[in-house]
Amino acid sequence: MIRRIAIAVCIAGFIALARDSAIAQRDDGPAGPVETTVPAEPERKKENAGEAPSGSAPFSHSKFVPDLSFVLDFSAVARDLEDRKFAALSIPEFMHGPAHAHEGHGHSHAAMNEKRGFNLNYGELFLFAPVDPYFELTGVLHLSTTGVEIEEGYFATTCLPYGFQFKGGKFFSGFGRINAQHAHQWDFSEQPLPYLAFFGAHGINEVGAQLTWLAPVGFYLLVGGEALQGQNESSFGSEGFQTHAGGTPIVDATGETASVDIDGSNGPNLYTGFVKTSFDIGDLTVMIGASAANGTTRINHELDEDNQEEGRHAVKAHTWVYGGELTLKYLIDSYRYVSLQGEYLHRLMDGTRYGLVYDDVSALDVLSVKNLIKEQSGWYAQLAVKPFLRWRFGARYDALNLNRVVIDNETQDTKNDFSRASAMIEFVPSEFARIRLQYNYDRSRYETVEEVTRLKTVHEVILQFTMAIGAHGAHAF
Amino acid sequence: MKRMTITLLFLLLGATWGEAKLNVVATYPWIADIAGRIGGEYASVQSLARGNWDPHFVAPKPSLIATVRRADLVIINGAELEIGWLPPVLRESRNARVQVGTKGFLDLSAHVDLIDVPKNVSRSEGDVHPSGNPHYHLDPRRVPALAAAIRTRLCSLDRERCGAYEKNYTAFAADWHKRCARWEQALAGLKGARVVQYHRLFNYFFARFGLTRIVEIEPLPGIPPSSGHLVRVIDTVKRQGAAFILTDVYHSREPGRLVAEKAGVRLVVLPHDVGAVPEATDIVSLFDEMVRRLAP
Hints:
By secondary structure, chain A is mainly beta. Chain A has helices spanning 2-18, 32-37, 83-88, 193-199, and strands at residues 67-79, 117-130, 135-144, 147-157, 164-172, 205-214, 220-228, 241-242, 261-262, 270-281, 284-300, 312-331, 337-359, 364-388, 391-407, 410-411, 418-430, 433-443, 446-449, 452-455, 458-470. Chain A has one domain: Porin.
């Protein structure tokens, strides 16, 4: 049903697009009769130095080069835990190992600040230009020392009437506040815990379609919905799996040969919706939003050997994530401000867990099929103060405050203590360069030693350099 | 019956829209003031930025998007002055009537000849404007051409009221020329005087009134001065002499105050836009106040 509505809306959008009336009249210079009554107007005269010579170049496309910019992120990291041990830490019931331990989504590249010492976190190449009077195209290539990935590549309409905009391709979802922002826009070096735990290192970064509507009211009110393919590493998935994929014969508890074959879910299987509003009270800007995402879940960690504490398992489920956001930004003057931002995310996962448990008696992997319900939530609050033209200070607290896991109607004894506190100082010599010193007091990760899982406090100091060159478009609020 | 009611409703709505004013959104208060004078009773004018803050740095608040959403005409300063904040606002407004290149978008910088056009463009030179110095409105003699551009555009958007816009423009231009003559007379004594400013904000004003700038307090556009640079500025002022140290309302006044004090020269805070100081309530009083603060 939802799918049918989404398709109908898309078609309606394109019909509207095709209407000539929806396209604004182009500016062909001042209107005729007016011009004749006013001849004394100064004519546009531009003789810029550095412009192309006046020689004929009838087929030159050089003026159509899109906005092109390159952002580089480089960091030096000090951490009180060896890289290999840090990589093995997990957030139980949320995330095994560091983000990117699983290579299931077709690539692997370094997580932010992965190694002690120097890290070339990423390079990002941004491309943007109007396609024609109806569309504009954005491309963001995420470059790492091991490969290139199309992080974003989407078209957006520029001519739909009544405040609508349609977007198609791969993009960051409009879910929540921080999700749609690129890493270089974040106030801290890495994303907050709830995002990492629920959506992994990439956030909701999906192939799909988005329709948003800016309401014609006196304040900012944006309503949007998305239909996405749903291939998130932590909460959503579409690919089916077989529990005997390893080739080893599997038996159930009674000793009979067992296999489970779970179908993938076709087409878009992640749907999101969001409402955002903003208004000013004097120099204070308030932004409030609510978001929801729901989709099918297919997680197959069966062959994941690193996953020690949970055993080999796969999950077929349906997942809902709800988010609430609040941003308060008080502008003191052109250069100084105080900004407070927070989000709360809640996840409900309901489905079946297929586990492979080694049975000592039969010396075989025994299949266990159990009902799984996960109800989890997390939040963060961050304060950023820019008291001087070139300096910024910030503090953040992020935590996962609910971790309720019910397996076959039995509430599990799960960890409930995940938190992190961060502080940062930034020196911003210009709009295009930023040097940030950040400290993390991380009490969100657990280590498993001799089958006992316990909290491992990690101290981190990150010196991060982020710089941009070229034509990099201004950022939204 | 139902259909008739709906038709009637649309007719009524249409009638109200017909009577409605043109929604004009200007990026800066000085533009809004001129547009208000030309549009008169037929235009409702709003400014996105405020006059006492740095025009290069305006927060792209979502409320601005809501304002642009309803605009029939967006008038900008241009010459890259709004490049750091307006593009996302314009794009997010989803208002096809006011996008770049449409009839509802007016870039005033296309109607003046810009000065200080850099030969080479590199960010190692600071925050340079490739098209030239964008603060052209501070030459009062250029204002009528800007007003004329606004009038022409209002006319092409709303032909029925063109007569009124024309009348408003003619009255404004005539009055403005008289005022220009008065301002020039008041500052005639300053011809040739040497001045120091914080940013290259008043170059058009200097060119009009014959003032000579010797150095800026900031070493490069957008880069705040180091103490070493300030020592060199003080030294330059001491050697060459200066009538004023000028500072704008939004940068820190400390460097200017220091230079003025050490070099023994008067510090003047000069408004650059409507609303920059309480006295500058419109474009006329902006220049009145600039002249009053500088007049010998």
